[in-house]
Amino acid sequence: MALLRHTTGEIKERKALTVNPAKTCQPIGAMYAALGVHNCFPHSHGSQGCCAYHRSTLTRHYKEPIVAGTSSFTEGSSVFGGQSNLITAIDNIFTLYDPEIIAVHTTCLSETIGDDLMQISQKAKDDGKVPEGKVLIYASTPSYVGTHITGYSNMVKGILKGFAAKTGTPNGKLNIIPGFCEPSDMAEVRRLCAMMGIDIIMVPDTNGVVNGPLTGKYEMFPKGGATREEIASMGDSMGTVGLGRWATTDGVNFLDAEFKVPGTILGMPIGLQATDRFIETLHKLTGKPVPEAITFERGQMVDIISDYDQYLYGKKVALAGDPDQLLPLVELIVTLGMIPAYVVSGTAGKYFDDRMAELTKDVPYDCKYKCGPLADMYLLHQWIKNDPVDLLIGNTYLKYIARDEDIPLLRHGFPILDRMGHQYFPTFGYTGGMRLLEKILAAIMDRQDRDAPETRFELQM
């Protein structure tokens, strides 16, 4: 904490140095995506240390034991390549744990050496290390480029390349590729589609995998996750909807290019307008009417916004996290009459700047935003030191800035290491939006009550 107080308010141009990045590395996203496939065993092709970090971060976020293998590079494999290690690992995993699928992702070390996963995978099959009926899929995810979001995207494409096919017989279903989001959000997407009578195939689907019940019996492969049969039929679907431009575009485009399944890319359905667009898209693609129950939920959210606007209007917010989540969050913040004063994301993309400019063009404040490697939490802290905000929204690592600057923090995104609820309660959809509104209002009014003089400490509602 003492180090944070040395953060300078003088902002100087940085060309290479990143301090407290607003992101993590590709293999974490790849590992999470693989967990959304039923009976799939993620495998990290690199050192034990890399795999341990990725597993522990996911385990701490979800409070569930995350299973994954590693090629356990030694000095020799670090110099001469990890082919032997990977083939041995594949043989051991299928023999000892009997998964249907092994999903291999690379790390910095294996990518720097130049290991060719396609060639190694073929050799493993040729050598009889992949049993009959088992499948080996893979994705390139070096940590020295991209983020956990691009790693997720790469593994999603690897999953589709490994299974998706086209028989020529339409299945009447709609493909949904959720971005890097919570299992509770995936469950909410499935609930909304079911309410509209839409039969979907969701890949990945981590609901029931990283948020399952405590039964007293350990299951290495929980019942949740998309099955290989479901994924294989995605080439026969009527269309694909990707939720999150950064995390789903590659998968949506692959299904379109390979199987002529038309794709639509939306933002994550966080907040009123983003959820409206999602529901409208479902209606247009399938022809299914929007039931009164969904309209009722929307009306409740609008009512809450109307009731509590007076407490939120003009409050300044600073946000950090993934662009697929930040953009709809900013749209919600603007809808509430709040000010998205500062926004940073470690995942780069020109669309981020364009969309942020569009969302904030009518905001009566000079909003600052940045994405990419230098859009870190150090920069966010500098902005806040120059002009404080009323609320922080982001992952657990923002708690240090929150404490140092005495600002309320609403935890949202990845990773959340010191609170629960994210894996069980959605922020997608209208019901998720209502939960977000409740948390935002609670943070603002708790601070208002804490700071109120005795003469103004009264019942506000």
Describe the fold and architecture:
With 461 residues, the protein is an alpha/beta fold. It folds into three domains: 26-163, 3-Layer(aba) Sandwich (Rossmann fold); 174-291, Rossmann fold (3-Layer(aba) Sandwich); 293-455, Rossmann fold (3-Layer(aba) Sandwich). Helices cover 46% and strands 13% of the residues. It has 17 helices and 13 strands. Strands 11-10-9-12-13 form a five-stranded parallel beta sheet, with helices on both faces. Strands 2-1-3-4 form a four-stranded parallel beta sheet, with helices on both faces. A four-stranded parallel beta sheet has the order 6-5-7-8, sandwiched between helices. The two termini are 36 Å apart. InterPro entries: ChlB/BchB/BchZ (IPR050152), Nase/OxRdtase_comp1 (IPR000510), Nase_comp1_CS (IPR000318), Nase_Mo-Fe_CF_bsu (IPR005976). Belongs to the NifD/NifK/NifE/NifN family.
Proportion of residues in helical segments:
40-55%
Span between N and C termini?
A: 36 Å
How many strands?
Answer: 13
Count of discrete alpha- or pi-helical segments spanning 4 or more residues: 17
The count of domains is 3
Q: Report the CATH topology name of the largest domain.
A: Rossmann fold
Q: State the order of secondary-structure elements, H for helix, E for strand.
A: HEHEHHEHHEHEHEHEHEHHEHEHEHEHEH
What is the CATH architecture descriptor of the largest domain?
3-Layer(aba) Sandwich
Q: What's the main sheet like?
A: 5 strands, parallel
Low-confidence stretches: none
Q: Based on Cα principal axes, name the global outline.
A: globular
Q: Averaged pLDDT, please?
A: 95
- How many whole angstroms does the radius of gyration measure? 23 Å
For CATH, the homologous superfamily of the largest domain is named as Nitrogenase molybdenum iron protein domain
InterPro entries: ChlB/BchB/BchZ, Nase/OxRdtase_comp1, Nase_comp1_CS, Nase_Mo-Fe_CF_bsu
EC number: 1.18.6.1
Family: Belongs to the NifD/NifK/NifE/NifN family.
Domain Nitrogenase/oxidoreductase component: 25-444
